[in-house]
Design a protein that fits this description.
Layout: E1 2-4, E2 17-20, E3 26-28, E4 31-33, E5 45-48, H1 50-63, H2 65-70
Parallel strand pairs: 1-5, 2-5
Antiparallel strand pairs: 2-3, 3-4
Length: 73
């Protein structure tokens, strides 16, 4: 399984990319699956939807080691 960046449009055209949502569900070919184990084998890559990317970036910023190193003590 492969994780694609949001801007990678080449895989969008292959119809083999699932869309991951903030609640962890995955939409693939118009059907929503609850877990990654439920997704059919035809789904060869995942791409996060925009709300997921925003959420992940906010979480990462909170624990980013580079950011903590530059913060004054």
């Amino acid at each position: 399984m492969k994780i694609l960046s949001f801007s990678d449009s080449a895989a969008e055209q292959t119809r083999s990319v699932g869309r991951v949502h903030p609640d962890g569900s995955i939409t693939f070919r118009g059907r929503t699956y609850r877990t990654i184990k439920d997704v059919p084998k035809e789904c060869i890559a995942f791409r996060a939807d925009v709300p997921s990317i925003v959420q992940w970036r906010a979480l990462y910023r909170a624990v980013d080691p580079a950011r903590k190193a530059t913060r004054p003590r």
